[in-house]
Structures are given as C-alpha cells and as structure tokens.
C-alpha cells in the first residue's frame, strides 16, 4: 500500500486537487488511510453520496416488510399525483400532461421516476428559469413540485428521486428522516461524524474550490442549506472518509458490521443487483459546465442501477471488476465497492466542476494503485 500515498501527494502538488483524503478497506479491515493538504478526519459535504444512505433507509423498511419495491409512490404520498410530465414549451409556457405510467419505489431508487436535475437536462433548466421553481437542494418544500421529464419507468434520468424516497420513509415510519437515519443507520453503524447539520463539526470542514479557466483553484461558498424545510436524501449529508467507508464495509459484509446486523443478505442483494428492468444509465451531458463536466466514467460500458448504487457491468483492466458499484458527490467525493474482489474505497475532496478531467485522472491513478497493492 506504500505506492498509494504518493498518488495523493502528486495530485495536490500539481494543483489537480486542493486537498484529498482517501481510504480503502476489505470487509474486515482497513487497507489504506491517507491524506494530503487536509486532516484524515476532515468533514465533507458529500452531496449525492447521500443517495445511497437514502436507499438504505428505504431498504430497511422493505427488509422489515413495511414497504415494497413496487409500492406506488402516490399510495404513500398523494401529492406525487400532482406531478405532471413536461412535454415541451409553447413559447415560454411549459406544456404539461399527466404521466402515462405509475411511479413506484423502485423507480425512485433507480432514477427512473421521471425527475431530473437541471445540471444535465436542458428542459429542466429552462423550466426552472421560466418558473422560478427551486430544486430540492434548496431544501424548500416547493421544490417537490418540480415536474417529471419523462414517464416513470421509460428511461433513466439523474435527479431528485431520492429526495422523494426519503419522504416515503417518513410516510411509512412516522419519524422525520434525520431522526430515522440517526436512530436506524448512524448509531448502529457507529457513524459518529455523519449528520444533516454540521453542528460541532464546523472546525473540521474544509472549503470548496472551483477550477478556474487558467487551471488554478479558487475558493467558493457552497453548502447544503442549514435547517431546511426538509432534509433531502439526495444531497443533504455531511460525513467523513472513515464514516462512509464503514457504510461501504456493511455492503461488503452482506449486511453486518462489527457484529451488528442491519440488513438481511437478501436485502443487500437487492441494494446491489440490477433493478433497471432492461434500461441502462446513459452518459450525462452537462448544461452547467461550471458545476459539472460531462459524466461518462467508463465510455462504452453498460451501466445499470441497483436499488442504492450505479452498477458497472464490465471489468475495467487494472481497476474495478464486473458488477462493481459506485458513485460520487457533486464536489468530487467518490467511492466504489467491488464485491468480487472484496474491496471498497473512497477518494474525497471538495472541488468543482464535478468529474473534471484532472480529478478523473487522479481517481484513475488512485484506483489503480489500490488494486496493484491487493
């Protein structure tokens, strides 16, 4: 594992990353922990790495028989029935219609519900600009009225489905999602530094940087809103590399961690197995280059989606194996799980735009160094 730390140090020295924390593990032990330009216990705004935790929350209820993958969303949240599909625009007037299919819990978890973020969806961006409707990262209830971009179950589109999934958990369980996660996930797994508000952790937060046109880095102010009207399970968490790796080890251990069973093995299979029913994850073409580059992590590979994670259906030579899982947060916090090789890892910084080339080159080098050391 001695070859991994130099990868991090070169990345920071070259200005590829402002700072970085990285960890890798087997199911039963830590393999590597390193940092450069930051402390190992740095707290990160993990944004969309929250989504897998949201899926875990819903799977806990499914595992207990309180919910089904195929439960219609509107049965639990009648307000879902108010959402219409955006067909286009008549001038500057959105043209909307009723959905032709019924959205289910499975659709929310796999991002096939019809909801899309404006970062990668021109119609969603135009709708937001014309109507002033906020998106869920605002933390405002009004954002949950954002329309569908397609009929549920007809294709994949990356968006705020997991925010609705968190609302499903609240409807079934009765607790607010932050309390549910604290009681049912964070405490049992020993995630002491994972929370929705950074109270007591602010001194361990590091700033977010943005790549400037000249290739340099400048600090920007960005964070999930404090005390929002609702906590979005698509974006709202703060965490550390060590905490998130404990969650990944839960998956490698088929639902147990340090003697605590949180999920049945069957539930872990459902979290990880392809739940797309023939659909696949397409490349994500950015319409906000200051926020995200185009996202196509492994060009030409078939990518599907489990209940909790994107799933990479082919092996990458020198990197992850077929059937590996993984995703990231918009500020370039990344993770993967390779059940076949019994390894999981995180690579975390705070940098925009997402998936920019220099970041991805560091990710490639880090992942290759991890596998070379196994």
Automatic annotation (TrEMBL):
Annotated ranges, domain Beta-lactamase-related: 8-358
Domain of life, per lineage: Bacteria
Coiled coil: none
Alphabetical list of Pfam families matching this protein: Beta-lactamase
Protein name: 1,4-butanediol diacrylate esterase
Lineage, top ranks: Bacteria, Pseudomonadati, Pseudomonadota, Alphaproteobacteria, Rhodobacterales
């Amino acid at each position: 594992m001695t070859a991994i730390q130099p990868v991090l140090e070169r990345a920071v020295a070259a200005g590829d990353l402002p700072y970085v924390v990285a960890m890798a593990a087997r199911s039963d032990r830590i393999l590597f922990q390193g940092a450069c330009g930051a402390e190992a216990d740095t707290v990160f705004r993990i944004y969309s790495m929250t989504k897998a935790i949201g899926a875990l929350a819903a799977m806990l209820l499914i595992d207990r028989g309180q919910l089904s993958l195929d439960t219609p969303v509107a049965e639990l949240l009648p307000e879902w029935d108010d959402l219409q599909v955006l067909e286009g625009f008549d001038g500057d007037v959105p043209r909307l219609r009723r959905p032709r299919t019924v959205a289910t819990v499975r659709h929310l978890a796999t991002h096939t519900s019809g909801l899309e973020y404006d970062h990668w969806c021109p119609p969603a961006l135009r709708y937001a600009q014309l109507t002033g409707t906020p998106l869920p990262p605002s933390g405002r209830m009004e954002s949950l009225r954002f329309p569908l971009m397609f009929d549920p179950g007809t294709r994949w589109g990356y968006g705020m489905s997991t925010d609705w999934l968190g609302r499903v958990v609240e409807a079934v369980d009765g607790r607010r999602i932050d309390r549910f996660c604290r009681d049912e996930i964070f405490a049992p797994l020993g995630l002491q530094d994972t929370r929705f508000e950074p109270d007591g952790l602010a001194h361990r937060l590091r700033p977010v940087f943005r790549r400037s046109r000249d290739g340099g880095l400048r600090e920007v102010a960005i964070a999930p809103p404090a005390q929002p009207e609702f906590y979005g399970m698509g974006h709202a968490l703060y965490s550390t590399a060590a905490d998130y790796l404990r969650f990944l080890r839960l998956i490698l251990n088929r639902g147990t961690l340090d003697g605590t069973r949180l999920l049945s093995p069957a539930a872990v299979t459902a979290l990880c197995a392809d739940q797309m029913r023939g659909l696949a994850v397409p490349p994500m073409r950015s319409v906000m280059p200051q926020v995200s580059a185009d996202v196509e992590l492994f060009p030409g590979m078939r990518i599907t989606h489990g209940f909790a994670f994107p799933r990479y259906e082919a092996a990458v030579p020198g990197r992850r194996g077929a059937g590996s899982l993984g995703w990231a947060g918009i500020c370039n916090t990344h993770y993967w799980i390779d059940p076949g090789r019994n390894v999981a890892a995180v690579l975390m910084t705070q940098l925009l735009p997402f998936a920019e080339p220099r970041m991805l080159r560091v990710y490639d080098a880090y992942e290759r160094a991890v596998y070379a050391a196994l």
